[in-house]
Specification:
By secondary structure, the chain is of the alpha+beta class. It has 5 domains: 3-63 and 125-209, Alpha-Beta Plaits; 68-121, no CATH class; 216-328, no CATH class; 339-542, Hypothetical protein af1432; 554-686, Orthogonal Bundle (Isoleucyl-tRNA Synthetase, Domain 1). It has 24 helices and 18 strands. A hairpin with a 2-residue loop joins strand 9 and strand 10 (169-170). The longest helix is centred in the middle third of the chain and has 26 residues, at 309-334. The chain starts with a strand and ends in a 16-residue tail after the last helix.
């Protein structure tokens, strides 16, 4: 059994969003440091609050493992003279490695004879090594913003204390001008301390006695249970908001919950306005009744004792009422006129520099929505077009414009204002849904009109930005085009929409009045961009990268179809004939190289192997076409597997690249047709076979 390590960095309150990534960094840095230092250890645990980041490591070995290494020295003819007597160079090398000259060995390295020696680095005590590891780990942490109070002292907030214990003994270390000890701090107001600790279990118990729950999972459970309990006391139930729950978990050390009230008149506002007013700045939770209607209550997660709730409740109520008063003013101002009347104001709002106004974007969305709706024969095409006309109008409302706290409700407010103006519910829903998905894991549009408008909006943004040269590079993506493309892909896959991506992009490009050259450049860039995002999506779904590359290398126009082809290839990867088919496909590709596709002149084939391959190809083509029409991609791949033997026989019995140009053209034409047949499913030459190196 080794010794237990406890390492705590105590600081002023760190912003909630900084803490989770920082503790992950700290854990990784400590684990990497232990590994690099050859220190065996057991489980690693982490704890964190706004004022502390903690790593606890079980069973750390008392000593580093010894390290044996071989060191190459000077050439033998330099280390020894002609009589084998060590020279100054040889003696110096032996001394530098701490060995006797007799321990030196001469070896032939293939580049001549050199002196070698085996050296053993004796392990040091863990108590000597750990301070270096912990100091380096703490110094390696990165934050969105840091404070600096010395040449090498950077941290999110000033460091106030350090705890560094190994087996209960204080480690001799310092970070950010603070020397480590065995004293932690409790809750800032209730029981600040200092409080002496002995080990991890004692540390957690001491903190809890002094009003700190160090485990964020325990704090989260406590917050959820307390908010649910207090919501019940209000006669309702908690409106659970997972992101708010996560945020509040890292804002407090010992959470308590109290309820406040606001005037019933504010319940006339749209639900989302009230919820955002509670959440965005105040981090309050909402309460609803059993029918889902909001109650005039809010729940505050506080970092103060229950006996202090009355003293702070009034202030919280006053702040929330002020925000709701603002929201009510915006709502009443915005609903004085018909929502459609605001569309004309979009003429005065630039969408992107060089790409016109939001009004022009609205016009493009109307045309593109109709095109898409007609392609998919949607009965909601007119609904989507009407929603497209109103989709951006909420951006000029008092509630949303000018970066107010309700700006995040764009789309949501569009829906509410549309309903307030008498628009049909499906139109209002599509206005809201056209922003979906907003982020990874977000819900997708649920209505056909919302799907059509979301696709149109994303395509217009991507094509427009590419046409203006506003293309993502590296980590720079100021217009969130990667997110837009991934959202487009998710919608197409979820809805199994077999509309061609190229056709969609061409329809979007038509609205920008591009020259032929600019149009070609834009479309090529957009299609490659979407293809790369689709590749990432499929790989994230768990499909093998080479099968993804093989399928997308053949065609990335029909993304739902591409996924089905990837799935089918996955089913047959272990089949007996699959490897042979891949090898045969490579032989076909290698001979054709970049030659364009041509039609086979079947009557001109004379060799039995050529005739047999053409017959097998024609039969397989019919089977593959039928399988694709019936959406049976497994059968399509199964049919292709039957080409393995005819391809092998062809290459064994026929010389393709003969001098006779006509005969060579006939044979190349046959292989060209075989290649075209393969490419209906995948570029099999991109499949990596077992034992081959990944490219």
């Amino acid at each position: 059994m080794g010794k237990e390590l406890l390492f705590e960095i105590g600081a002023e309150e760190i912003p909630a969003s900084y803490v989770p990534p920082a503790i992950q960094q700290l854990r990784a840095a400590v684990e990497e440091g232990l590994s690099a230092a050859r220190l065996q250890h057991g489980d690693v645990r982490t704890f964190m609050t706004p004022r502390r980041m903690v790593v606890a490591v079980a069973d750390i070995a008392d000593m580093q493992e010894d390290l044996e290494r071989e060191v190459t020295g000077p050439p033998a003819k330099v280390a020894f003279d002609d009589e084998g007597v060590p020279t100054k160079a040889g003696l110096g090398f032996a001394k530098s490695q701490g060995v006797a000259v007799e321990d030196l060995e001469v070896r032939d390295t293939g580049k001549g004879e050199y002196v070698h020696v085996r050296v053993t680095d004796k392990g040091r005590a863990s108590s000597e090594v750990l301070p270096e590891i912990l100091r380096a780990a703490a110094a390696s942490l990165s934050f969105p913003k840091t404070m600096r109070w010395g040449p090498d002292q950077r941290f999110a907030r000033p460091v106030r204390w350090l705890v560094a214990l190994l087996g209960g003994e204080v480690l001799d270390m310092e970070f950010a001008g603070v020397k480590a000890g065995d004293e932690t701090r409790g809750h800032r107001n209730w029981s600040p301390g200092p409080h002496r600790v002995k080990d991890v279990d004692d540390y957690l118990a001491v903190l809890e006695r002094n009003y700190v729950l160090a485990d964020p999972a325990a704090r989260r459970v406590r917050i959820l249970e307390e908010t649910q309990r207090v919501a019940g006391e209000c006669g309702g139930r908690l409106v659970v908001n997972e992101s708010l729950l996560d945020e509040v978990t890292y804002l407090v050390e010992f959470p308590t919950v109290f309820a406040g009230r606001f005037a019933d008149r504010f319940l006339e506002l749209p639900r989302d306005v009230i919820v955002v007013a509670m959440k965005s700045h105040q981090r309050y939770f909402a309460v609803e009744d059993n029918d889902g209607k909001l109650l005039p209550n809010f729940l505050c997660v506080a970092n103060v004792p229950a006996e202090s709730h009355d003293a702070v409740r009034e202030g919280n109520e006053r702040v929330l009422v002020s925000r709701l008063d603002d929201a009510a003013f915006y709502w009443h101002e915005d609903t004085r006129a018909n929502f459609e009347d605001k569309v004309d104001s979009l003429r005065n709002v630039t969408w992107l520099e060089g790409l016109g106004s939001l009004y022009e974007k609205t016009e493009r969305l109307e045309r593109l929505s109709r095109t898409i709706g007609e392609w998919v024969s949607s009965p909601e095409t007119d609904t989507a077009v009407r929603a497209a006309k109103l989709a951006k109008a909420d951006l000029v409302t008092e509630m949303v414009k000018d970066g107010k706290e309700f700006t995040e409700l764009q789309g949501v407010m569009g829906r509410e204002y549309a309903l307030a103006s008498g628009e049909k519910a499906p139109v209002a829903a599509a206005i809201h849904e056209h922003y979906m998905p907003r982020f990874a894991g977000d819900a997708l549009p649920s209505s056909e009109a919302g799907v059509i408008l979301s696709i149109a909006d994303r395509l217009d943004s991507i094509v427009g930005c590419f046409s203006a040269g506003l293309i993502p590079s590296g980590s720079q993506d100021p217009y969130a085009l990667r997110r837009q493309a991934i959202g487009l892909i998710r919608i197409l896959l979820d809805r199994d929409l077999n509309v061609p991506v190229r056709g969609l992009a061409e329809a979007a490009a038509d609205a920008f009045g591009l020259s032929d050259e600019a149009r070609t450049t834009t479309l090529d860039g957009v299609l490659d961009f979407v293809r790369q995002r689709a590749r990432n999506v499929f790989i994230d779904e768990g499909y093998a990268y080479d099968l993804v590359d093989a399928v997308l290398g053949a065609s990335s126009d029909d993304l739902p179809g591409a996924r089905k082809r990837i799935v089918a290839l996955s089913h047959f990867r272990e089949a007996d004939d699959f490897t042979g088919l891949v090898v045969g496909s490579r032989r076909v590709m290698n001979i054709l190289k970049g030659d364009p596709s041509v039609t086979v002149d079947a009557p001109a084939l004379v060799e039995p192997a050529s005739i047999a391959l053409e017959k097998a190809r024609a039969d397989t083509e019919g089977n593959v076409d039928a399988a694709i029409r019936s959406d049976d991609l497994d059968e399509a791949v199964r049919s292709l597997l039957g080409l393995r033997r005819p391809i092998d026989d062809f290459f064994d019995g026929v010389m393709v690249m003969v001098e006779d140009e006509k005969l060579r053209a006939v044979r190349l034409g046959l292989l060209s047709e075989v290649r075209s047949l393969f490419m209906r499913i995948a570029d099999f030459s991109r499949v990596v076979l077992e034992g081959e190196a990944q490219e």
